[in-house]
Amino acid sequence: MTELAPVLTQADANLDSSLEKLFDLCRIKSISTDPAFKADCRTAAEWLVSYLQSLGFEASVRDTPGHPMVVAHHAAGSEGAPHVLFYGHYDVQPVDPLNLWERDPFDPAIIERDGQRVIAGRGTSDDKGQLLTFVEACRAYKETHGALPVRVTILFEGEEESGSPSLKPFLEANAAELKADFALICDTSMWDAETPAISAGLRGLVGEEITIKAADRDLHSGYFGGAAANPIHILSDILAGLHDETGRVTLESFYDGVEETPSQIKASWETLGMSTEKFLGAIGLSVPSGEKGRSVLELTWARPTAEVNGIWGGYTGEGFKTVIAAEASAKVSFRLVGKQDPDRIRASFRAYVQSKLPADCRVEFHQHGGSPAIQLPYDSALLNRAKSALSDEWPKPAVMIGMGGSIPIAGDFQKMLGMEALLVGFALADDRIHSPNEKYNLTSFHKGIRSWIRIMAALAD
Amino acid sequence: MTELAPVLTQADANLDSSLEKLFDLCRIKSISTDPAFKADCRTAAEWLVSYLQSLGFEASVRDTPGHPMVVAHHAAGSEGAPHVLFYGHYDVQPVDPLNLWERDPFDPAIIERDGQRVIAGRGTSDDKGQLLTFVEACRAYKETHGALPVRVTILFEGEEESGSPSLKPFLEANAAELKADFALICDTSMWDAETPAISAGLRGLVGEEITIKAADRDLHSGYFGGAAANPIHILSDILAGLHDETGRVTLESFYDGVEETPSQIKASWETLGMSTEKFLGAIGLSVPSGEKGRSVLELTWARPTAEVNGIWGGYTGEGFKTVIAAEASAKVSFRLVGKQDPDRIRASFRAYVQSKLPADCRVEFHQHGGSPAIQLPYDSALLNRAKSALSDEWPKPAVMIGMGGSIPIAGDFQKMLGMEALLVGFALADDRIHSPNEKYNLTSFHKGIRSWIRIMAALAD
After folding, report:
1. Among chain B residues, CA nearest to A369
2. Which residues does the UniProt record annotate as the domain Peptidase M20 dimerisation (chains A, B) (predicted)?
């Protein structure tokens, strides 16, 4: 067994230079969803390859039809050690509305916020800060012992925030190279600032964009109002009809494959001390909006949803324009749980939209990503070793939780490479990922690095 | 009585230079609803004053808190002639989406479209071309007889497309100066390209903008979806609930003051040969969307409506963003008929929105314009003289029709200055006013000028 304490000491000594590395990476505007930032995405991939090579990895930028992947390999220090695949993503969300940022999203810095030292900037939490916790853990091992306790393959993606279109073909084409004993994924949150969490359940996601088309031109609402179809009305009607009065999604067969969460798991969640007041109060709300009679943790971890993420149509500028628009659009997403089938959900949604369409109107569908939910067995050895390693590092013991967000890669690893995935991350609920003023706690970064050092050691035992 | 024939001949001879004047005016980007074009609105007002002065009018630009008014006066050639107030507006609608225009909206030109010679450009029909028909009629009189057959006061407004905020205060402050025997308003349409129309009924308008506010920030739909209120859902629900299954508006007391159209009037409309197929077919539609069991003419001329003119919220850019927006907005307008009270309709709408709001969400209302409907008596002498003059000019006799659009000024003249208003215009249903590729038929412009020459003569008799 490799000695642990000096590696942790080395990580502590490295902290300032680890932060410099994070700042360098966060300065690169790798917004994957916007074609204007295509070159920046490649720059981020190249930066990572170069850094991993400097740590002794055999690393390369791997082209895809979209943004490139980064793949890197490093042998284990001793024979028979397990082989892990570590996954993270170097792309980030768009930054609009820019005027709501306290500082330039691409000029990261350590600032004081709400009495904490945090690293402010787009991507500091999601997911550049998180992926570097693992890289910096590897670095500390190399600098201390000249070796890693486990064999490591790294896969960094550049399309996670835009539906990962290249991921499945890449996994398929490179399955032999990427297959390991299990995967480590760092793109999730802690329970709270003192309690690390392992995410055993993850919701899936289906994204759809619809455009309702009525008249062949924009119309004057005086001449045509009252007789001509208004696509905003049709769209509103479609969206309003997605939920019934109890908050359930109305799509046909939507709940096929959704199972009730076992009562002992619900009971363990109740010990976490989360309340509706706390959960919603943090974002200025108080009334749970989804299915009636379920806790906020169950609603966000274990129940499926339908959410409209964007809507637009007609005149949206200053003043008023009495127009009946020719078309109106919305972006709609579904969070999936259990065995809900993304393809069937998409088909059911499309059939529903068609059924609400007047005979003289049309709809265009545009497909965004789709991935099923995943659920790990709560009794796996992998989970329990990681739980114990995390509990050694943080003030409070680690908990196994559900996750509202979708990490499609976990399902892909399971389905395509036959690997279970361990989801451990150090983000916090108030990190404002996907929003203005994203941050990552300095403690998340520092103790995140130390956590991976401990987890690698635990896995090597 | 002034001799008519030489004036008509003079107007014919003037046509090319009349068109040059129209082009000059249409090149000025007087978009009143967008503050970026404030200076252009003043330029348009100054252009009109200068031109009217050159024709012998005593004309001036009159400041308001918004865009300026143009007021001009000219005496009648003979004692005892009636005094008319002519109204038009020099402001135009925004031009977005610009990419749908066949040519620069502010570079007017005569082009061939669908086998007709038309004047293409923003404002050519609504309302610069229309207001110039009257000015050019005056010019032909002056050039022929050195005098006008009636005493003329002109009022040109620059805020018609943005709710006319300055109009009422201006009428009030200048009532003595503006009061005439009756008003002439040129901002309406013909029945068809051969049949002139006098608009005896006009729908009113109430404009409202609402913003639904939920969480205090944009949220990640993974973390919060299923528990946190989504303002786009709330907004969709509100908008979808505005109509019941029969197409009626659901607001409380909405139909107070709405009377059924007398059967002899409905019968006269039936002789016009309009069908659902024709009316909706022209814009690529076939199914009437409003109240069931009423003709398209009744729906657009004599029934009130609720229409959403614009909607926006969340992520609307390329790609996908799994966000739950902090707020969502819509612009909503109501067309009024009969004695519907704009203030009560607005209050009823606001109460309805409040009633649909979850306890932890808020709404902000922004008031746009409001005006009641007006209805002229079908047997007035004014209407009948104009009808006969128009019938002399055009291939088919003039008809008295309803109007779907709102011309608030007609109600204001009635209420504030005690004047009936004669609404005659030469626009056509396919002029694409408020839309890309607006045009005005060359025939509308030319015979429009001749029509005013005839109407002025008829009024002077």
Report:
1. B320
2. 201-360
Which residues of chain B are within 8 Å of residue A33 when distances are taken between CB atoms? 317-321
Give the number of other CB atoms < 10 A from CB of residue B100.
Answer: 13
Helices A5-26/A442-460 angle, 10° precision: 130
Which residues of chain A from 355 to 374 reach within 8 Å of chain B, CB to CB? Answer: 358-361, 368-369
Chosen for mutation from B221, B334, B353 (greatest number of chain A CBs closer than 10 Å) is B221
Cβ atoms of residues B326 and B216 within 8 Å: yes
Length of chain A: 461
Q: What whole-number distance in Å separates Cα of residue A406 and Cα of residue A187?
A: 10
Q: What pLDDT does residue B365 have?
A: 98
Give the number of other Cβ atoms within 10 Å of residue B212's Cβ.
29
B203 to chain A: which residues are within 8 Å by CB? 222
Judge whether residue B2 has pLDDT over 70: no
Peptide bond preceding A127: is omega within 30 degrees of 0, i.e. cis? yes
Q: How far apart are CA A171 and CA A7, in angstroms?
A: 33
Q: Which domains are seen in chain A, by residue range?
A: 5-202+373-460 (3.40.630.10), 205-258+304-371 (3.30.70.360)
Interface residue A121 vs chain B (CB under 8 A): no
- Count of CB atoms situated within 10 Å of the CB of B281: 12
d(CA B428, CA B189): 5
Residue of A289, A346, A353, A439 to mutate, testing the B interface (most B Cβ within 10 Å of its Cβ): A289
User: In this complex, do A163 and B403 lie within 8 Å of one another by their Cβ atoms?
Assistant: no
More confident residue, A22 or B226: A22
Contact indicator for B253, B348 with CB cutoff of 8 Å: yes
List CB contacts (< 8 A) between A436 and chain B. 217-218
Dihedral-angle region of residue B107 (phi above 0 means left; psi in -120 to 50 means alpha; beta otherwise):
beta
B148-166 pLDDT tens trace: 999 999 999 999 999 899 9
DSSP helix/strand/coil, A450: helix
What's the pLDDT tens digit per position in A380-410?
788 889 989 999 999 988 888 887 776 778 8
Please, how many CA atoms are within 13 Å of residue A6, restricted to the half-sphere of its CB? Answer: 8
Confidence (pLDDT) at B378: 67
Alpha carbon distance B279, B297 (integer Å): 9
Could you tell me which of B441, B429, B434 has the C-alpha nearest to residue B95? B434
Higher pLDDT, residue A261 or B294: B294
Angle in degrees, CA A36, A39, A42, rounded to 5: 135
Give the separation between CA A114 and CA A105, rounded to whole angstroms.
Answer: 19
Q: Shortest CB distance from A227 goes to which of B288, B314, B360? A: B288
**Can you read off the two tokens belonging to residue B78?**
């003979």
* Chain A residues with CB-CB distance to B310 below 8 A: 232, 313-316, 321, 323, 325
Give chain B's mean pLDDT. Answer: 94
pLDDT bin (cut points 50, 70, 90) of residue A320 is confident
CB < 8 Å to A308, chain B? 230, 232-233, 236, 314
Q: Which of residues 243-262 of B touch A (CB under 8 A)?
A: 243
Distance of alpha carbon A444 from alpha carbon A290, whole angstroms? 31
Distance from C-alpha of B240 to C-alpha of B299, rounded to nearest angstrom: 20
B192 contact A CB<8A: no
Of A308, A335, A436, the CB nearest to B226: A335
| Strand ranges (E), A316-443 | 323-324, 327-336, 362-371, 374-375, 399-403, 421-423, 439-441
The answer to whether B450 faces chain A, any CB pair under 8 Å, is no
Across the interface, whether the CB atoms of A436 and B96 are under 8 A apart is answered no
State the count of interchain CB pairs (< 8 A) between A and B. Answer: 356
